[in-house]
Amino acid sequence: MNTTIETILNHRSIRSFTDAAISDEQLNAIIAAGIAASSSSMIQATSIIRITDPNKRAALAHLAGDQPYVAQAAEFLVFCIDYQRHYSISTEIKPEYTELALIGAIDSGIMAQNCLVAAESMGLGGVYIGGLRNHPHEVDALLNLPPYCAVLFGMCLGVPAQDPQLKPRLPMDMILHQNEYQPLNKPLLAQYDQQTMAYYQQRSSHNKHQDWSNIVTKTLSKESRPFMAEYFHSKGLMEK
């Protein structure tokens, strides 16, 4: 195993940061690592907005669900699908197609993960902030996003002030299928549920008496941002 894989396997979401800054050299390397990520047909349909204005940080922390680390982290980056750049080159492009939105979302996720792995390789930590999609129109207005450009998620980065336990992940045999889709292995799921139950009961904060099956059932059985389709349509995306 090499140091890159060790860094990836040691990933934890960090939500508490010291007051230490991230140097310009570090930030430039993090963004460069993101830009180097794979991109479908070299479309490169992502823009990153670095938020340095403390008032905007505070507003975004509130819009994301009152997550204080959005305001406290050394850096906060917002990742957006961006076809305005392409539309500025040629009005012949068709950003309204759902496939293009999928490409933009996938490319943005790949780019962001490159950024986070690069940061973690430097001893920094971070956490994704999907809560920006709680109020996408308000975030959009705050960031002055043009047509064909839409907010996806944010990322806090900084020097960790905590050392959380590793969350147990689904076993590989439940993720990796051979040649065709395999039915759910319920005995293996039961073992994983026991493992996650033990994790949530033993971790240092936010203990809960739940296993993974209960948590995902609770999460996925409720309404999930039904306004997002309208938001993307308002940006000229996902109309076809």
Automatic annotation (TrEMBL):
Signal peptide: none annotated. Its EC number is 1.6.99.-. Gene3D superfamilies: NADH Oxidase (3.40.109.10). Keywords: Flavoprotein, FMN, NADP, Oxidoreductase. Residues 8-158 form the Nitroreductase domain. It is an enzyme of class 1 (oxidoreductase). Belongs to the flavin oxidoreductase frp family. This is NADPH-flavin oxidoreductase. The lineage of its organism: Bacteria, Pseudomonadati, Pseudomonadota, Gammaproteobacteria, Vibrionales. The gene is frp.
